[in-house]
Recover the amino acids of this structure.
């Protein structure tokens, strides 16, 4: 099939457009309308799109990836089991974890570890969210709804475990929406020392 | 009144013009231009620069919110009460209510409503400052001050191979002629120094009675007759409300303002930068071309007003009670003048000399700090100058509708009597000489503000022309049109005479 060429005729400029004065007037009416509407139209009629930033803040969208937080268990200890999945998944290599064993006698001893050190360099972080995806325990989340507060010191961007645990989620809690099943709970899915497996 | 007083008056006038133009108009324009564009483009624009007020003052303001609120409520309530009392008097035909006559009640309405409005304004201002955490913002008008401070303390950079002398001279050559041109702009009618508190009419001055009487019809004619009998001829020094009354008038503006082109040209030449040079060349050719048109568009004005003196041009419009824009040849001249004026100030849509998309910054590329600031000031002063010139040539200058030498004389002959009182409001309001002059100055400035606002509006509406289009518009469009306009005006003037 032969290619068909669609010929689009360009409309010629009319005398009115060529004379320019009428078009200037038209443009002026438009811009003036905008100006008066935005300046004197009052809150409801003005279409100002920008905000007075530090005083007025726009709420980030629900799925915004903000700065990280470490979720807590009911007793306030971190949910993190120091499996290193997040630091492995991190393409920017900004997460540093030192795992440690729970104390002898702790019911969790021998089942899971905990992070003795958990540091995120927020300046290196590219906010891709892979750490959240990788976490099997829902222990790291990016649902704080905050961006990095600016600072002139690099040290202010190194977030340690306490800082990360101290950041609440958007709903204000330090927990995660997914319930945690501790060893000893009837719903606990894994091997349980008390049940004598 | 001797030489000293005249010198003193001249210095006062120079200070006034400098204060208004360089001190107020130019900085406010820097802000207004950005803010206006923001409002057109649905943004808030510059409004963040602030001065933190001392804690104690802010606390005082926060404390005064309550009294201001009370003043607002009380003012409007009492004004309402006065109106209610007046209504009661009208309904029952009483001479006085609660020991108050109708006259005092009217004054009460005015006074209390004024109190209410002032309290409301004060409340709004205080509330705004307190809500800002004690930061004085003034709608962002502090931005020019912040800009100026930044520019003054910035490094005064001169490109290493630039011509240091020409580079430093260029901003001065731009800003000084623009300011100097204001010398011949009249901002009010002549001030008769010895008759400041008198009423002046047709060269006769008579003493004003207390208050501002309003008259109408026969009473006005009787007043004029007695005044003519009692009045004295206006004597003493009359101070022209312009810095220099030159017989070349407008030619002075073109002569001095025309040197502004040298500033742009040598700024471009002295910068040792190809973009600057190109920008300077463009600026020079564009300004020289449009200077021709600018000069020719105002020729019909001289032919009709029969004078080059700007004060006589304004006076002609005042005496004929008809602004230049309403005379057909001058309507066309005004349109052509506005085109040429925008091109002459090198502003959008004619800003190819600094066209960012082609020439980085044109002849301004290498300038920074206060030298750039001076170029900028010069540009805005020129905007105000051309607005003032347009005001004088086409919009009556200091002429205020219905304002005569002796006060307002509204059309017709009528009289309104205020109900319940002996007061009448006639069509003539007598105003003392100094107040008439003050009203004229204020109106002149208002007209300039409106025209400047229009210029800014055009600046934010139209896209930039191509360079050859600018030249074609000048030499093939505006120039023949202005020449034809001169011809048509000549024929009209011949027929008229």
């Amino acid at each position: 099939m032969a290619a068909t060429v669609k010929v689009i005729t360009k409309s010629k400029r009319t005398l009115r457009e060529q004379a320019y004065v009428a078009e200037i007037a038209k443009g002026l009416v438009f811009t003036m309308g905008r100006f008066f509407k935005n300046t004197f139209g009052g809150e409801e009629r003005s279409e100002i799109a920008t905000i007075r930033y530090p005083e007025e803040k726009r709420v980030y969208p629900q799925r915004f990836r903000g700065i990280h937080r470490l979720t807590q268990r009911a007793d306030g200890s971190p949910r993190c089991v120091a499996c290193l999945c997040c630091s492995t998944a991190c393409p920017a290599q900004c997460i540093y974890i030192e795992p440690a064993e729970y104390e002898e006698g702790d019911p969790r001893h021998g089942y899971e570890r905990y992070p003795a050190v958990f540091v995120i360099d927020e300046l290196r972080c590219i906010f891709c969210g892979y750490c959240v995806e990788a976490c099997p325990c829902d222990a790291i989340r990016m649902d704080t709804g905050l961006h990095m507060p600016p600072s002139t010191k690099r040290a202010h961007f190194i977030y340690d475990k306490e800082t990360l645990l101290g950041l609440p989620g958007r709903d204000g809690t330090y927990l995660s929406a997914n319930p945690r099943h501790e060893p000893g709970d009837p719903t606990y899915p894994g091997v349980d020392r008390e049940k004598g497996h | 009144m001797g030489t000293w007083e005249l010198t003193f008056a001249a210095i006062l006038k120079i200070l006034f013009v400098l204060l208004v133009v360089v001190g107020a108009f130019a900085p406010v324009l820097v802000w207004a231009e950005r803010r206006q564009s923001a409002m057109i483009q649905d943004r808030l624009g510059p409004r963040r620069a602030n001065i933190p007020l001392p804690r104690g003052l802010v606390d005082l303001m926060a404390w005064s919110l309550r009294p201001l609120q009370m003043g607002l409520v009380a003012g409007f309530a009492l004004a309402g009460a006065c109106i209610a009392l007046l209504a009661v008097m009208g309904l029952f035909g009483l001479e006085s209510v609660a020991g108050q006559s109708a006259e005092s009640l009217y004054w009460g309405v005015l006074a209390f409503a004024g109190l209410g409005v002032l309290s409301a304004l004060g409340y709004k201002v205080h509330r705004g400052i307190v809500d800002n955490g004690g930061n004085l913002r003034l709608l962002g008008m502090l931005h020019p001050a912040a800009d100026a401070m930044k520019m003054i303390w910035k490094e005064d950079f001169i490109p290493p191979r630039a011509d240091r002398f020409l580079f430093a001279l260029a901003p001065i050559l731009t800003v000084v002629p623009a300011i100097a041109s204001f010398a011949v702009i009249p901002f009010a009618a002549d001030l008769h120094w010895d008759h400041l508190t008198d009423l002046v009419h047709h060269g006769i001055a008579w003493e004003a009675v207390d208050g501002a009487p309003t008259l109408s019809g026969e009473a006005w004619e009787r007043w004029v007759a007695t005044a003519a009998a009692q009045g004295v001829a206006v004597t003493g020094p009359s101070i022209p409300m312009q810095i220099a009354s030159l017989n070349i008038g407008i030619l002075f503006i073109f002569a001095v303002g025309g040197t502004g082109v040298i500033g742009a040209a040598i700024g471009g030449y002295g910068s040792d930068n190809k973009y600057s040079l190109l920008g300077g060349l463009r600026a020079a050719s564009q300004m020289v071309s449009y200077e021709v048109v600018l000069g020719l568009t105002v020729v019909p004005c001289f032919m009709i007003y029969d004078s080059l003196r700007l004060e006589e041009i304004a006076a002609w419009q005042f005496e004929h009670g008809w602004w230049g824009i309403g005379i057909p040849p001058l309507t066309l001249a005004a349109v052509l003048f506005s085109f040429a004026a925008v091109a002459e100030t090198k502003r959008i849509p004619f800003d190819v000399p600094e066209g960012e998309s082609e020439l980085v910054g044109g002849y301004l590329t290498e300038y920074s700090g206060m030298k750039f600031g001076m170029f900028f000031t010069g540009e805005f002063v020129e905007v105000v100058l051309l607005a003032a010139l347009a005001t004088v040539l086409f919009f009556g200058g200091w002429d205020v509708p219905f304002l005569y030498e002796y006060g307002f004389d509204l059309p017709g002959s009528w009289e309104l009597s205020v109900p319940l009182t002996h007061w009448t409001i006639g069509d003539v309001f007598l105003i003392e000489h100094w107040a008439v002059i003050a009203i004229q100055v204020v109106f002149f400035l208002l007209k300039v503000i409106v025209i400047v606002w229009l210029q800014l509006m055009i600046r934010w509406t139209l896209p930039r022309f191509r360079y050859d289009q600018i030249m074609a518009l000048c030499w093939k469009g505006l120039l023949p049109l202005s020449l034809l306009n001169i011809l048509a005006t000549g024929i009209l003037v011949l027929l008229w005479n």
